[in-house]
């Protein structure tokens, strides 16, 4: 299932539609499904709230119908979440995610070493999809790490999850995407700390942590020094932008800073209502025409920050809705991290990791403006929440 989010067209729509129909049937015919769905009501409610706000923004700004294409997918995933009320074998789902990580990581390797692509971008999306592809891969890597650490799985499955970690992480490094890789570090550290405290296997955790860190450092410092150069060049790019040099904005960091400045200006002009969904590109081109923004950012339609995007689109209310969209599910999963039943705690840890990646990546990029990353978020967050509801219904607490 996660693989279909990385592709487009009928290969994605057909399985989503089928799962939605199954979910609706389950909610209509099974009391157990409705009960599990209700136990996940905070997550379901905040997803519905964001959809309602987007509809209100669309109506108040009289926007084109195409602006509702992405928000409308929320309805699909709220129905699909009900599928997680079935007693599906979690190991089968975990194997599917790890196989997806292996496949997408291999695609990254193929694009880099066979096609000669400088920054691999995955199965679709083109050059501009490298950042979201890296985030997508790293979410799968974190899920594979969690499964590799869980007790009671066979040696073959554990090695599959380890392979997914290695191939997926290497594929993410090849994208040279600074934001997702920097966001990955604290989330990964949090996973290690949670597992060590729960299992008391501190030596195993320290060994795995050391191997992962040394492996990434070795790859970036020897085989792919361009990643190191992109990181070390950040201060110089910021200084160049701050000094107002002629080429100060002609860098990735400089363009981001100029977009953020322009986005903040749009927010200050419209702090309560915003300028409407997906209207940042229109605003930027107007500012460029008036000489109040650099022509270098005229090609961008989003400000490369999900938080600024929401402030531009809908002002303070939209930002609050976005923060609830992230914080409410995070709180829901955090409350279950210490659950005595291991499946519940593992599902909660997966939810915290997914949201953690999105929260951190959202500072330097838009994480919900394309179908691929938004689909993964809605599928995992709503599905894991409903899955916890099912486990709480079927497994008595100790």
UniProtKB/TrEMBL annotation:
The keyword S-adenosyl-L-methionine does not apply. It is found in: Membrane. Its main location: membrane. Pfam families: Wzy_C. Residues 163-323 form the O-antigen ligase-related domain. InterPro entries: O-antigen_ligase-rel_domated, WaaL-like. GO terms for cellular component: membrane. The keyword Cytoplasm does not apply. It is a multi-pass membrane protein. The chain crosses the membrane at residues 12-29, 36-53, 65-86, 93-113, 128-146, 158-175, 204-223, 311-332, 344-369. Keywords: Membrane, Transmembrane, Transmembrane helix. This is Polymerase. The lineage of its organism: Bacteria, Pseudomonadati, Pseudomonadota, Gammaproteobacteria, Lysobacterales.
């Amino acid at each position: 299932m996660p693989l279909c989010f990385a592709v487009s067209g009928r290969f994605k729509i057909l399985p989503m539609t089928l799962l939605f129909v199954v979910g609706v049937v389950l909610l209509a015919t099974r009391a157990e499904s409705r009960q599990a769905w209700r136990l996940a009501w905070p997550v379901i409610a905040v997803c519905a709230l964001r959809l309602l706000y987007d509809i209100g923004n669309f109506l108040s700004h009289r926007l084109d119908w195409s602006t509702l294409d992405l928000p409308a997918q929320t309805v699909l995933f709220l129905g699909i979440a009900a599928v997680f009320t079935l007693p599906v074998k979690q190991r089968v789902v975990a194997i599917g995610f790890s196989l997806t990580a292996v496949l997408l990581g291999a695609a990254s390797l193929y694009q880099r070493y066979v096609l000669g692509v400088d920054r691999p971008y995955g199965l679709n999306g083109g050059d501009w999809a490298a950042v979201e592809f890296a985030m997508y891969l790293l979410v799968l890597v974190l899920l594979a790490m969690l499964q590799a650490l869980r007790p009671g799985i066979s040696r073959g499955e554990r090695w599959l999850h380890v392979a997914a970690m290695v191939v997926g992480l290497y594929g993410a490094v090849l994208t040279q995407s600074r934001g997702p890789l920097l966001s990955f570090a604290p989330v990964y550290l949090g996973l290690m700390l949670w597992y060590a405290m729960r299992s008391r296997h501190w030596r195993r955790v320290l060994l795995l942590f050391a191997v992962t860190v040394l492996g990434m450092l070795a790859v970036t410092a020897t085989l792919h020094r361009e990643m190191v150069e992109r990181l070390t060049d950040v201060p110089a790019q910021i200084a160049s932008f701050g000094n107002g040099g002629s080429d100060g904005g002609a860098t990735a960091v400089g363009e981001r800073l100029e977009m953020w400045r322009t986005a903040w200006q749009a927010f200050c002009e419209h702090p309560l209502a915003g300028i409407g969904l997906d209207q940042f590109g229109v605003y930027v081109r107007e500012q460029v025409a008036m000489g109040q923004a650099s022509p270098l950012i005229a090609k961008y339609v989003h400000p490369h920050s999900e938080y600024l995007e929401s402030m531009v689109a809908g002002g303070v209310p939209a930002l609050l809705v976005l923060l609830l969209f992230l914080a409410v599910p995070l709180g829901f999963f955090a409350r279950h991290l210490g659950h005595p039943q291991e499946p519940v705690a593992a599902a909660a840890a997966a939810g915290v990791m997914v949201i953690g990646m999105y929260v951190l990546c959202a500072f330097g990029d838009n994480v919900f403006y394309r179908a691929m990353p938004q689909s993964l978020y809605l599928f995992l967050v709503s599905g894991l929440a409903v899955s916890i509801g099912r486990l709480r219904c079927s497994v008595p607490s100790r």
